[in-house]
Amino acid sequence: MAETVLAIRNLRVESITGTVLVDDVSLELKPGEVLGLIGESGAGKSTIGLAAMVYARAGCKITGGTVEVKGANARTLDMEARRELRGRRIAYVAQSAAASFNPAHCIMDQVCEMPVQHGMMPKAAAQAWAVELFRSLELPNPETFGARFPHQVSGGQLQRAMAAMAISCRPDIVVFDEPTTALDVTTQIEVLALIKKLIKEYHTAALYISHDLAVVAQVADRIMVLRGGKLVEQGTTEQILMRPQNEYSRALVADRKASDKLSVESTAQRGAIVLSVANAVGMYGNFTAVKNVSLSVAHGETLAVVGESGSGKSSLARLIVGLLPRSAGTVTFRGRELSSALKNRTKEDLRKLQFIYQQPDVALNPRQTVGEIIGRPVQFYFDRSPADVAKRVAELLTQVDLPLDYAQRLSSALSGGQKQRVCIARALAAEPELIICDEPTSALDQLVADGILKLLKHLQDELGIAYLFITHDLGIVRRIAHRTAAMLRGEIVAEGATAAVFSPPLHPYTERLLASVPEVRADWLDEVLAHRA
Amino acid sequence: MRLFGHKPTTLAWVGLAIIGFFSLIAVLAPLLAPHEEGAVVSDTWAPASGSFLLGTDNIGRDMLTRLMYGARMTIGVALTCTILSFIIGTTLGLLAAVGGSLLDQVLSRSVDIMLSIPLLVFALMILSMFGSSIPTLIITIAILDSTRVFRLARSVALNLVVLDYVEAARLRGEGLWWLMRREILPNALPPMISEFGLRFCFNFLFVAGLSFLGLGIQPPYADWGGMVRENGRAIAFGVSAPLWPAIAISIVTIGVNLVVDWILSINARPSGASAEM
Fold first, then answer.
1. pLDDT band at A262 (very low <50, low <70, confident <90, very high)
2. Distance CA A245, CA A251 (A)
3. What is the dihedral sign for C-alpha A444, A214, A133, A200?
4. CATH number, domain containing residue A145
5. Is A368 within 8 Å of B182 when comparing Cβ atoms?
6. Is the domain of A80 the same as that of A10?
7. A40 plus A143 within the same structural domain
8. Per-residue pLDDT, A353
9. What angle in degrees, to the nearest 10, is found between the helix axes of B63-98 and B134-161?
10. Mean pLDDT in chain B?
11. Across-strand partners of A496?
């Protein structure tokens, strides 16, 4: 039996205020083995990943258990010995490469820093080694890539450079903390494939942290499901995917699989057209973000706009609501042309068109109560008395399944999913005909996002609201969209009923998008890569 | 005990005690003072004695009485200036942040012009032109100081206006006043509060400094800067009279700074806050 490189036993991490973040979690890692940690936010995944390096975030403390690296207890080491351990024996790849690189230094200096600092090799040798790593990570022009600054390369390339940085000391263990979450599906697949290759090539053991079961399934040998800092279930990847024992893991797996199926039928008979955009052009300075886009949304219908980041989806939304002035084309709402600039629109125009944001955390004023937030549109658009406003707020809270006493709470005291429900209630308060949803679920955990989607669907059935739903997640599109428009570089390349857009003959771009959505099968990535080759 | 939801450090308690002590004296000066504010009660620079605890000043007024009334005047004027300066600076700063680029340019460049003239020179110029009555003094300092507050308020607000909740309010059709008052101001308050303490210190020293130069608060009103000036020559005769107001000035400044340091350590200082005078 191979020796164990990392053994964590009965780990307990607490915050300074006494909240238990990780409770009695044990894990073992053998050389070359990849253990996937999966769970919602707050499940303690990242805390465990950091604890493997005997590190706890500010305000947290490891209060119990042992962390053994190659049989030696790392918790008893002094600061100097811990410094030796980190980077050299265990490396860390963070979620946001953009935030983890120092913008003032070129990439080469940052990748070489660790081997040089740890005295493993002189600077020249470290640079040659970095170039080799860049090459094996298939970065463009590996010889000169290092001379660039972090802002001069794409997000996917930066994430790969970060993997190079982590592996630069040839560590025994690498902790990957959601390395592909911030990337597009099409970029994610490349980074994922390279991480997999890297782990295999250097025979490194890895902890792979993710909230996406399908992603973990591609790289992990074993999977641990976590919830609220506790272990829910542990098993081989195949076991967890095929025969999850625990109810929670079953829900996770089932929910992820549900999004593979088409569940909304587009009706042949479309209702009255609510919003129609014709030949719209939107520019930021000299850059054309929206090129000659035409689309329409009918009463009670959901039109999904899909595309990679930078494809102009959000710019299109901003153009429709008037935040991005259009330089050509028309936007018509119920037969009435909307003015290009926000300030020239009437109150009634504004009321009928509402917006739901991607990040509920910044979409709600943290110093206002839920009641004030939801009540304001009621008072602003309909000029009701305070008593009537309060009554309407209660109605709206019930509609979005929030307890009535939440009206008195500050929005900052709510969870992400609850905040998004408040955002929906705020939009509903205006009694709109169309709601533009800009990736409303992408910042939320899988099961919470699922609840939000169900709520939106339910509201549509009940109130006949039309949605313009912007997303990069094709799983969501299949579940809720009657019609779909695929955007690429500011243009709509395919549009029609969702079933039609997703069935052959496919536009090459739609095909690429479709092929990049991870499926909950362990061999999916290998299949796709084989197919591409 | 907790303040702003945090436990003050020992040094912060010292600062709070100093501020509390001097505020009490300032408010209760007419009750506590042993003599009349301007009454000549003894000889010039009489030494400390039972009836004049800190001795008398250059024309024989009781030093302790003058110090107490001086607290009232110096702290009061500095506080009024700071409050006024924050009202002007914050309103204009938020307006510049939400009102569009033209308005922002006009306001910011005007402020830049004012900032390019040294504060003291500017104040001396205005005070010698309009005379140094207390209202003129307060308005002059408030307007000059508001340029600093403007810069902080604008930079804090600029980071807030790009947030989605402000955009949501714009999409709803809310006016500028609502955006400033309800969406931005409450979220801009924490950094503004610590800046308030700092600006108070600067204004306090500025008032004392102007009085020392003879352009601030005029006799017969007692004021610490003026008292240092009046009794300055005494130091050559080994009389401690000018030291008392000077010590009072330093203690209040240190006290306020101790509290501000503590507040700053709670909410990290935002970029754009200016600590220079």
1. low
2. 11
3. positive
4. 3.40.50.300
5. yes
6. yes
7. yes
8. 93
9. 40
10. 88
11. A484
Structure tokens, A301: 């219908």
Residues of A in contact with B172 (CB under 8 A): 350, 376-377, 380-381, 430
Note whether B164 contacts A380, CB cutoff 8 Å: no
CB A339 within 8 A of CB A419: no
Q: Which residues does residue A236 pair with via DSSP β-bridges, in sequence order?
A: A222
- Domain contains A254: yes
DSSP assignment of A233-269 equals EEEEHHHHHH---SHHHHHHHHHHHHTTS---PPPSS
* pLDDT tens digits along B142-193: 999 999 999 999 999 999 998 999 999 999 999 999 999 999 999 998 889 8
A164 located within any domain: yes
Same domain, A150 and A45: yes
Number of domains comprising chain A? 2
Q: Which domains does chain B have, with CATH numbers?
A: 10-266 (1.10.3720.10)
What interface predicted TM-score (ipTM) does this complex get? 0.78
Task: Give contacts of B 175-204 with A, CB under 8 A.
Answer: 182-183, 186-187
- Terminal CA-CA length for chain A: 36
Q: Does the beta-carbon distance from B172 to A342 stay under 8 Å?
A: no
User: Measured between beta carbons, which residues in chain B are less than 8 angstroms from residue A365?
Assistant: 165, 182-183, 186-187
One domain for residues A334 and A252: no
Instruction: Answer yes or no: is pLDDT of A254 > 90.
Output: no
C-alpha dihedral (A193, A196, A202, A207), degrees to nearest 10: 140
From A158, A173, A52, A175, select the one nearest A110 (Cα to Cα). Answer: A158
Please report where in the chains the tokens 């272990």 appear, as a residue.
Answer: A231
Separation in Å, CA of A375 to nearest CA in chain B: 13
CA A179 from centre of chain: 11
What is the rounded distance in angstroms from the CA atom of residue A234 to the CA atom of residue A229? Answer: 14
* Single pTM value for the model: 0.80
Is position A512 within any domain?
A: no
Helix (H) or strand (E) segment spanning residue A224: strand A222-227
End of a domain among A226, A258, A290? A258
Contact B165 A365 (CB under 8 A): yes
Output DSSP code: residue B181: I
Burial of A75 per CB tally in 10 Å (0-12, 13-18, 19+): middle
Chain-chain contact of A367 with B163 (C-beta, under 8 angstroms)? no
B173 neighbourhood in chain A, CB within 8 Å: 345, 347, 350, 380
Is the CB of A347 less than 8 angstroms away from the CB of B183? no
Report d(CA A317, CA A21) in Å as an integer. Answer: 39
Cα–Cα distance list, B174 to A348, B183, B215 (Å): 13, 10, 46
SS (H, E, C) A268-325: CCCCCEEEEEEEEEEEECCEEEEEEEEEEEECCCEEEEECCCCCCHHHHHHHHHCCCC
Pair A194, A341 in one domain: no
Counting Cα atoms < 13 Å in the Cβ hemisphere of A42 gives 9
β-sheet bridge partners, residue B3? B6
- The DSSP letter of residue A502 is T
Structural domain of residue A412, as residue ranges? Answer: 279-501
Which helix (H) or strand (E) segment holds residue A230: the answer is strand A230-236
Which of B98, B102, B159, B164 to mutate against chain A (most A CBs within 10 Å)? Answer: B164
- Please say if the pLDDT value at position B277 is more than 60: no
Give dist(CA A157, CA A151) in Å, integer: 11
The CA distance from B161 to the nearest CA of chain A, in Å, is: 11
Residues of B in contact with A377 (CB under 8 A): 172
